[in-house]
Write a structure and sequence with these properties.
Blueprint: H1 2-22, E1 27-32, E2 35-41, H2 42-66, E3 69-70, H3 87-99, E4 104-105, H4 109-114, H5 117-143, E5 154-155, H6 173-196, H7 207-231, E6 237-238, H8 240-249, H9 258-261, H10 263-276, H11 280-286, H12 292-298, H13 312-322
Parallel strand pairs: 3-4
Antiparallel strand pairs: 1-2, 5-6
Helix pairs in contact: 1-2, 1-7, 2-5, 5-6, 5-7, 6-7
Length: 323
C-alpha cells in the first residue's frame, strides 16, 4: 500500500512541478504574517509545493524500510519457544517471495514483540504528509479567494455549483476535501500513537488498532492525492494581471533600498507609501535619493526574486554623495 501512496504522491509532485514551470514568469507579492512582503514568482510558490511532496516521499520511503523487519518466529514472548531453529529464516524468505517485497528477519525477537516503533514511524510519516497537504490546500484556497474581494491570484477548476443561495458562487471544494481527509489521517496517527505506547512487558496487544489506522490513513491519502492532482492542480490557471498588480503595489519592495540608503530611510518611504497610497518608487524619486534609472533597477520586482548582489555603481554614488 505504501508503494501506491508513493505513486499518488509522485503524480501530485509532478503536477505542482509543471505549474511551477508554467507560472515561473509571473511576478506577485509574497506574504508573511498575512501581510505584504517582498515580491516572489508564482512559479516559485508552486515549485516549493512540489519540493514539499518530494521531501514527504523521502520520509515515507525511510519509514517503509522499517516495516520490512519481521518478528515472525518470536512465538509467545520473543524467545521462539516451540519453533524450529530454521523457521524464522525460511518463513520470512517465503513471505518475501509471495509478497514481492524485500523482507528481513529481525535480529532481536524480544524487541520485535514488545515494540511497534516501525508502525509509529510509518504513521508519523503519513501524518507529516497530511500536515503538508493541509498547509498547501489552505494556500490554494487563499490564493484563489475572490473572485472580486479576495486574492484572486489563481483560478481553481470549477467542479460543482458552490451555493444554493448565491448564484454563480464556486467553492474550492477540492482544497476543502483534501483538508478534511488529512484531518482524518492526523486523527488516525493519534490513535496509532496511543496504541504504540500502550504495550506492557513482552507483548503489545493493541496491534489491530495500529494496523487499521495506518492502512486507513494510507488508503485515504493515496486516493485524495490522485484526485487533487487530476481534478484541481492540473487545471489551475493564473490571473497574471492581478499578480502583477500586487507585485508592484507591495510596500515591502522598500526593503531593496536597505543596502543603499539604510533601513531607517527605507522605512520612512514605506510608511509614507502606506499613508498616502503612493508607490515606493514615486516617493523615492521625489526625495531624489538615487538616480532614476538606477532606482528603477534596484526596485525591479523580478530582480528581488533571486539572490542578487548590490549594484556597485549605486553604492559608490551614495558613498560619494555622503563624503
Amino acid at each position: 500500500l505504501f508503494d501506491d501512496v508513493l505513486q499518488s504522491l509522485g503524480e501530485l509532485e509532478r503536477s505542482f512541478a509543471r505549474k511551477g514551470k508554467a507560472f515561473d514568469h509571473i511576478l506577485k507579492s509574497g506574504r508573511t504574517h498575512m501581510m505584504d512582503a517582498v515580491p516572489i514568482r508564482l512559479g516559485q510558490e508552486f515549485s516549493s509545493y512540489a519540493t514539499a511532496m518530494r521531501r514527504a516521499a523521502d520520509v515515507l520511503r525511510q519509514a517503509q524500510e522499517g516495516l520490512r523487519e519481521l518478528g515472525l518466529g518470536g512465538s509467545a514472548v520473543g524467545t521462539g519457544v516451540n519453533t524450529h531453529p530454521k523457521y524464522q529464516k525460511l518463513a520470512v524468505q517465503h513471505l518475501s517471495k509471495v509478497s514481492g517485497q524485500k523482507l528481513i528477519a529481525t535480529d532481536d525477537l524480544r524487541y520485535a514483540m514488545n515494540s511497534n516503533l516501525a508502525l509509529s514511524v510509518a504513521s508519523s510519516a503519513l501524518r507529516n504528509l497530511a500536515l503538508e497537504l493541509i498547509r498547501i490546500s489552505n494556500d490554494l484556497r487563499l490564493l484563489s479567494s475572490g473572485p472580486n474581494t479576495g486574492f484572486a491570484e489563481i483560478v481553481l477548476p470549477a467542479l460543482q455549483p458552490g451555493s444554493s443561495i448565491m448564484p454563480g458562487k464556486i467553492n474550492p471544494v477540492m482544497g476543502e476535501l483534501t483538508a478534511m481527509v488529512c484531518f482524518q489521517a492526523v486523527g488516525a496517527d493519534l490513535a496509532t500513537a496511543m496504541a504504540v505506547q500502550a504495550g506492557q512487558l513482552e507483548l503489545n496487544v493493541m496491534m489491530p488498532t495500529m494496523a487499521w489506522n495506518v492502512l486507513h490513513a494510507a488508503e485515504i491519502l493515496k486516493n485524495t492525492m490522485r484526485v487533487l492532482a487530476e481534478k484541481c492542480v492540473d487545471g489551475i490557471t493564473a490571473n497574471e494581471a492581478r499578480c502583477r498588480y500586487y507585485a508592484n503595489a507591495t510596500v515591502a519592495i522598500a526593503a531593496a533600498l536597505n543596502p543603499y540608503i539604510g533601513y531607517a530611510a527605507a522605512a520612512e518611504i514605506a510608511k509614507e507609501s502606506v499613508k498616502t497610497g503612493r508607490t515606493v518608487t514615486e516617493i523615492a524619486l521625489e526625495r531624489k535619493l538615487l538616480d532614476e534609472k538606477l532606482l528603477r533597477e534596484i526596485l525591479d520586482p523580478y530582480r528581488m526574486t533571486e539572490p542578487a548582489p548590490p549594484i556597485e555603481d549605486v553604492r559608490k554614488k551614495v558613498r560619494n554623495a555622503a563624503s
